[in-house]
Amino acid sequence: MSVSSDALIDFKRESLRGAPGYFRVGLTQVGQWWMVDPADRPFFARAVHGVAATPEAVHDPAARLRQWGFNTLGCGSERLYQEEGMAFLRAVGFAGTGPVINLAGVRLPDVFDADWPRAVDERARAVCEPLAENRHLLGWVTDDVPGWPTQPAVDRPGLLQVCLSLEPGLAVYHAAWEFVLALHGSKLPVLAKAWGVTLTNKEALRDLTRREQGLVTRGYLRDEERWSQEFAQRYFTTTVAAIRRHAPHHLVLGCRWGGPVSATLRSACAAVADICLIDHTELPGVPTMPVLLGDFNWSTKAFWEEGTARRLLGPTTLERMLRRGRLGLARAVAHPAVVGYAWSRWHDRAGEQAPFGSGLVHANENEAREHTELLTAINDRVEELRAMTLYVEDMI
Fold this sequence. Notes:
Layout: E1 24-27, E2 33-36, E3 42-43, E4 45-48, H1 61-67, E5 72-73, H2 78-84, E6 87-91, E7 100-103, E8 106-109, H3 116-128, E9 137-141, H4 159-164, H5 171-182, H6 188-195, H7 202-210, H8 218-246, E10 251-252, H9 263-270, E11 276-278, E12 291-296, H10 315-334, E13 338-343, H11 369-379, H12 382-387, H13 392-395
Parallel strand pairs: 4-5, 4-13, 5-6, 6-9, 9-10, 11-12, 12-13
Antiparallel strand pairs: 1-2, 2-3, 7-8
Helix pairs in contact: 3-8, 8-9, 10-11
């Protein structure tokens, strides 16, 4: 084992985050991050999001989780945590507080609105205080896939472009224009030249956004990063502080992004959270802090062979995909910064077909053995994998 049964002996005491008697996280003497459960035992989170049973289900979801080696209920599993006694994650849901940005796929709160901090505090009080003494709560998630934009693309406007294209009634619209014009002499022609685009007026930019034409020039992307940093710092500083006021014993895990995000957003989260939820593709560049893979699933594009349509896949390709996914998860488990992972879905998405579904349970409630058997094998070997920081590929 990487950590002894008397876990606290092996930890650097100054690194421990969290309150005694609740879930904590800390750095071991050998430089590996681990969680510690309320009884001071080493804990590696193995979670699944959205765990639930359909009315016609004949299987107990919690019993299935335990059978497959999982020990944590992920986001969207609220109906089970009260009766099962399992560790669980809970999202507060700040994205809908106060005025909301809802344009071009972005759905976020207006963090510049004067009343937003009050709305955040009220939300934290309503959601966090009833669970403030719950020792099964592993940690708080600020939002469950709220709609943070990914990297800007020609068909996907970035956060700055979206904010500049909102209606003038929102505070964030004025804050964004003030921010960006201050960088370019307070003149729109100077801004347009720096971005390498034609902008005769503000309405021209709004029109591009409505048509979902994203700006991707070097000048724009530079300002996008600066604005995203300002926005994310306001979001995380305010929301995390509210959680700590109303649930001071629990860990804070930042936002469940639902996929890869920019290093700027991750850094803003890492500055105030105890643990960061990240995508597995971001693992090579994680900060020196504990992380949890927030939405792992090998039935995703990252594990499909490039340029191969799903309908053309045969058994050989399926086996290759599963092997790459198994290897990717095993390597992640062995990573010294990783303190857990969450499989992204309990049920398959509508229209998915075995063996290419993303859930652990199919629509008919049958077990997705192509996933569960491999995951059980890894879950049962977490301590072994954590003890091995090299040659993981040879082990599997």
